[in-house]
Design brief:
It is a single chain. The protein has about 90 residues and is mainly alpha-helical. The protein has a domain of about 35 residues. Strands 1-2 form a two-stranded antiparallel sheet. Strand 1 and strand 2 form a beta hairpin. The protein starts with a helix and ends in a 7-residue tail after the last strand.
């Protein structure tokens, strides 16, 4: 049977007697289906973005002495003791 014949029979059974209610029902069903497909697309996109932006791993940090912090990563500021002396990574020149 032709799909349009199915729609015609469905509209004849429900839509003719309740045209506004059937229109609202079909619009709600379409919105739910479209929203589900859109949400699926969003989750698939989020998976690809997360896998593309994986943070690089650094090696194990080791330290010796009482004031030797073990730091991994980049762009860190280190303060030794209470004298306010800091060590920052060098700034790049433009």
């Amino acid at each position: 049977m032709n799909p349009l014949d199915w729609l015609k029979a469905l509209y004849e059974a429900f839509g003719v007697s309740h045209p506004r209610a059937s229109l609202v029902s079909v619009m709600a069903l379409g919105a739910i289906i479209f929203g589900g497909v859109w949400k699926l697309a969003a989750t698939q996109y989020a998976k690809t973005v997360r896998s593309a932006h994986v943070a690089p791993t650094t090696g194990n940090a080791t330290t010796q002495g009482s004031q030797s912090p073990a730091i991994t990563g980049s762009d860190n500021t280190v303060t030794y003791g209470g004298d306010g002396a800091t060590q920052s990574p060098p700034k790049q020149k433009d």
